[in-house]
Design a protein that fits this description.
elongated, two-stranded antiparallel sheet, alpha+beta, 47% helix, single chain, 3-stranded antiparallel sheet
Length: 223
């Protein structure tokens, strides 16, 4: 189990207020067996050490552990040709787990191509406890930092929203202005057409109402 001192981020001895208490998820290493030698919690991941080299370790996720365990069960319960491909890093994991000396073991393929399964089947609970709620307290100074980060995030989102709304309003204004200008031009065009039509109609009416002047013939000229 991860020591409580590793989970308490408080720098003050005074009890935290309700506002300074958070519920976070953490993965813990089981304690019903002896402390695991080559598996240690690392945030929400697990650090696996190399039994032959203390400086060699690899970080895996909970999903990767589940994949390793599923593959181990497949080796134990199925024919080798029916098993899925070995997950990347499984050999390292199986060697580390089998070096713990527990009653359960991870199945593996030896150098002769044979499946080796001894002891009980490996389970996720052999490495990790179920995820549980762990209370983590924050000091007043850390709480102020968290509040500042939250406020900054909210303020940034608000500014982004205001910019987007202003941009959308500007686009609507431009579209409305363009439509109005188009309507004005359309109205002016219709006005010109009507004016020209009225002028032509007026000229036609004027020419039809004007009396024609008789042309004097030769006989009238002689008189």
């Amino acid at each position: 189990m991860i020591p409580d001192s590793d989970l308490d981020l408080s720098n003050s001895s005074s009890p935290p207020s309700s506002l300074e208490t958070y519920q976070l998820f953490a993965m813990t290493i089981p304690t019903r067996d002896s402390q695991l030698l080559y598996f240690s919690a690392y945030g929400r991941k697990v650090l696996i050490g190399n039994p032959k080299n203390g400086e060699d370790s690899h970080l895996v996720t909970r999903d990767q552990l589940k994949l390793f365990i599923t593959y181990s069960h497949a080796l134990r319960n199925k024919a080798l040709e029916s098993c899925p491909p070995s997950p990347l890093g499984y050999e390292f994991f199986a060697h580390a787990f089998n070096s713990e000396g527990l009653a359960s073991t991870a199945s593996y393929i030896d150098e002769h191509g044979l499946v080796v399964s001894t002891g009980a089947a490996l389970e996720l609970a052999d490495i990790l406890d179920e995820e549980e709620d762990v209370e983590i307290t924050l000091s007043s100074s850390r709480m102020a930092q968290v509040e500042q980060m939250v406020w900054h995030t909210a303020l940034s989102a608000s500014h982004q929203r205001e910019k987007m709304e202003a941009r959308q309003a500007g686009q609507r204004k431009d579209r409305n202005y363009g439509r109005k200008q188009e309507q004005k031009l359309h109205k002016k065009g219709l006005g010109k057409i009507r004016k020209v039509t009225d002028l032509k109609a007026g000229d036609a009416r004027a020419s039809s109402s004007t009396p024609s002047t008789p042309v004097e013939g030769p006989m009238n000229a002689m008189e």
